[in-house]
Amino acid sequence: MTIIYKIVPASLWQDAQEAGVFAGSEVDLRDGYIHFSTAQQVVETAAKHFAGQRDLVLLHIDADLLGDALKWEPSRGGALFPHLYDKLDVAQVLCVDPLPLGDDGRHVFPPLA
């Protein structure tokens, strides 16, 4: 099992739960795919794209369940990032954790796979 992660504003995740699918954030919709990160990438992703933001959640997804719609593509510095060229069925999310800010202003992560 390969676990990948998605950082999402809690309100957007609530909307997705009501709809049954997550179509993506504004950036995802603009780029045409849903951005995910691996355990090794997600802390840097939070620091780079979500610095200082509150009310975020961290989605844990089994990449193996996403099929051919998931592509591993080069991004920052050539690292391969998982991109989903489809909507994410909320039933495919294994776990959702809050992603609070610590006293140092950085997000506090749960244990990652």
Automatic annotation (TrEMBL):
<protein>
    <submittedName>
        <fullName>Dihydroorotate dehydrogenase</fullName>
    </submittedName>
</protein>
<dbReference type="InterPro" id="IPR009297">
    <property type="entry name" value="DUF952"/>
</dbReference>
<dbReference type="Pfam" id="PF06108">
    <property type="entry name" value="DUF952"/>
</dbReference>
